[in-house]
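Agenda item 2: pyridoxal-5'-phosphate complex prediction
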Amino acid sequence: MLKNLKQVYSPVDFRKRGHELIDQLADHLDAQLNDENTKTLAWHIPEDERTFWIDFLEKGDENQLFAQIIKRITVVHNPKCIGHQVTPTAPITALTAMMSGLLNNGMAVYEMGMAPSAMERVVTDLLCKKIGYNTHSRGFLTSGGTLANLTALLAARKAKVQSDIWNEGHKQALGIMVSEEAHYCVDRAAKIMGLGEKGIIKIPSTENYTMNTAILEKELQKAKTSGIEVFAIVGSAPSTATGVYDDLSTISKFAQEYDLWFHVDGAHGGAAIFSEKHKHTVTGIQYADSVVIDGHKMMMLPTITTALLFKNGNHAHATFSQKADYLLIQSKDEDWYNKAKRTFECTKTMMSIHWYTMFKMYGEGIFDDYVTTLYDKGKTFGKIIEDSANFELAIKPNSNIICFRYIDKNLSEQQLNDLNSKIRQYLLEDGEFYIVQTLLRDTRYLRCTVMNPFTEKEHFNRLLSKILDYLQ
Ligand SMILES: *Cc1c(COP(=O)(O)O)cnc(C)c1O
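Presented output:
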């Protein structure tokens, strides 16, 4: 038995396999970034993929295992991978991810992650500063935008609702206001918190898919009249489906006037705080009580690396505290270094080391380069579609998310929806490009997110001509 375990922990074996794997991954990166003939994925239906891995477990060559994994994934580093909002990781953060995997400090308490806990404070302080917060602001890292949004809304409820729901449970009807275009996880968070369907006050969006702030007052009064105590309003920066930003400035003024918690879901585009050219998209973010930014979306970090930042750091400590007198906590002993008091997770990965490494190795300017490049490319692709007779945009891109569809005057809306779905399925099975689709007000759109700074105009043109060739 011990002999087997010794083999598992063999440094010799680790060194050998590690070097081989790095070579394999570097070759993969090189081919995917530089060889135009590579595909973004080799499509298999789920049952075929499952059969493959059942067989492989039984009789596959163990020396082929890593190579097979690399071969059978969707390649986020391929410039023709323009589907979901997952970043092509900066390769150096694959190394820090490996460090986190091997060193495996659990982060719940300071002793189990001294360096990464302190680095987490440094990184979140930097993010707070970039948002425009002051020195009372604090943040922490957590496992994904979904969990971060839930945590922020829990903090909001603790801060704004008089009764102690955390300890005593719900009595009154509570609600939050959010655009109908918000990410589904906000809806899910509200349901988990027991707000129910009627507690999610969905604000219709304008024809440009941004929250219609002109009707906020009316919607709030309507909720109040039906006995709902609204405690928070969520702005999307931007919304996931369309990439359109809500007007954060106007929402913040509304929140202030009615004493609501203002939360910004910047999971995708909060990183625009780093872009000199595009930071106007998040004007007003500095007034938010809490902000979520996903590092694994617009900041080149591995999944999952998310920051949740609070304008007033005390609130971060209050979310899960048993006592309501949290406002005293910071003045006594802030205890920023024992993370689990503030995060949903107990154990979590050493995610701060990815962020810190990027700041240290490349400087914060690299995030400006990344966000600016991608948003510019989103606009470039938007222009190409605008100029094309066969395609139309859902909305002029606000960011690196582009929704468009094939059009043909002779077809009905239903036929166009079916046809655009068929196009997307064709592209998936073909595998050269990877794009997704979305439904906006009953219209089917093809949806692209430019996440790779090396996706060029030629790729966009080639995608459109490929679609037209298919339809011939
Ligand atoms: C992606 C996204 C989320 C969810 O974040 P995860 O990290 O995937 O959990 C939430 N909100 C918005 C606006 C997003 O784009």
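Discussion summary: The chain has two domains: 105-362, 366-471.
Owner for follow-up: CH.
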